[in-house]
Design a protein that fits this description.
It is a single chain. This protein is an alpha+beta fold and 152 residues long. The chain has one domain: Beta Polymerase, domain 2 (2-Layer Sandwich). Helix content is 28%, strand content 24%. It contains four helices and eight strands. The strands form two sheets. A five-stranded mixed sheet has the order 6-7-5-4-8. A three-stranded antiparallel sheet has the order 2-1-3, with no helix packed on it. Strand 1 and strand 2 form a beta hairpin. The longest helix has 25 residues. It starts with a strand and ends with a helix. The relative contact order is 0.17. Bound molecules: zinc ion.
Length: 152
């Protein structure tokens, strides 16, 4: 089974789930639970890829974590991939999520949200003195390179 467009019935790959249907432009999807699982796997893969890209271009980045919301939201194609980035060279400005649109040409076919914090702010998030927005939870730490991700 593939994810299908609710507009025209076109079958779509998981990486096409959050971008307009190439045939009719619709963003509505028909998905089974199995499709949802395939979509979650694809989001995991893209999250790791996005993290390695950020490590390549941003100096001062020390750690990147996945942020996750409610499971029923995460399975939605339009729910962004959310990353918490700990950056030694950023300014302390609190938890401010920055939204980005999907960039399929860059290998990121899902919307994303980046929250950048200082190491001190990260310590406060870990001790829950500083709250993450929208009920997000701190998820797994993402590797610095794809070799590291696939290794061991
Ligand atoms: Zn369509």
């Amino acid at each position: 089974m593939a994810i299908s467009c609710a507009g025209c019935g076109n079958e779509l790959a998981p990486q096409q789930a959050a971008i307009p249907c190439p045939r009719c432009g619709s963003l509505d999807r028909n998905m089974t639970a199995e499709d949802g699982a395939a979509l979650m796997d694809e989001k995991d893969r893209v999250a790791k890829y996005l993290a390695t890209k950020h490590y390549e271009v941003e100096g001062g980045l020390s750690r990147i974590f996945r942020l996750t919301g409610a499971a029923e939201l995460e399975v939605e194609p339009a729910e962004p991939i959310k990353l918490l980035e700990v950056n030694e060279s950023t300014f302390s400005s609190g938890v401010r999520p920055l939204q980005f649109a999907p960039a399929p040409a860059s290998g990121i076919p899902f919307p994303s949200v980046i929250v950048e914090v200082t190491p001190d702010e990260f310590a406060m998030i870990e001790s829950e003195e500083l709250k993450l927005p929208r009920g997000w939870k701190l998820g797994e730490e993402l590797p610095k390179s794809l070799e590291e991700a696939s290794g061991s």
